[in-house]
Amino acid sequence: MKQKQPYIYIYFYYLNINSMLKNFIFLFLLTACLSCGSKRNFVMTDEFVNKELGIKDPATSEVKTSSLSAKDKEYLAEELDVNKSEITNTELYSFIKKWEGTKYTPGGNSLKGVDSSNLIARLSAEVYGKTLRGSADNMVLNKNLYLFKAEDKLKEGDLVFFRLGSDKEITHVGVYLKNNRFFSCSTNGGAKILNFKKNPWNAGYATAGRFQE
Fold first, then answer.
1. What's the pLDDT tens digit per position in 120-175?
2. C-alpha pair distances (Å), 157 with each of 8, 107, 132, 153, 181
């Protein structure tokens, strides 16, 4: 019986040699860069290495997309008691649809459970590119925030801060939407759209904040 040619082994052997050759060339070029006088400030980053070796960075390779269906807009318009043509900030309301219903968990920071400060910190970063850190009582001290209390001056994207119960410190934070509605997370219902004019929110309203341009 005639023995079959082991083509598959030759093929993988070739791939292995080819990979080793690419790595050798990369290391050679890297050494040249480091030893070159004009490249004294050269810094080897993870991004550079991944690029040279053809490795995709999962943090940057995924393209973020935001979309709202006609049904989503109808639902949100009903929740806010506005015309659906007013639901224009796709990134904001896509974020709300994604996180709505997440249960309240003190210190939580995922779709399995979240608290108001971590929820709003995520929203601010993902939707507006703004950084907020710490608990609600720390956020209100952010130097980049312009603080005001007039309710008639509130607009979409403003932060709203609350003192609930007998607490003297700020206990909750949310993002104002439209028509006296805001988005936050509490022990009563988790992450959801809430009515600013209803208690305990109306009675507990402390101040609002807007990022300065």
1. 999 999 999 999 999 999 999 999 999 999 999 999 999 999 998 776 899 999 99
2. 60, 23, 14, 12, 11
Residue found by looking up tokens 């292995």 in the block: 16
Q: Does residue 202 share a domain with residue 97?
A: yes
CB atoms inside a 10 Å sphere around CB 156: 15
100 and 161 part of one domain: yes
Q: Are 204 and 194 in contact (CB under 8 A)?
A: no
Which residue, 174, 178, 185, 113, is CA-closest to 140? 174
Residue 55 DSSP class? P
Number of folded domains that form the chain: 2
What is the pTM (predicted TM-score) of this model? 0.69
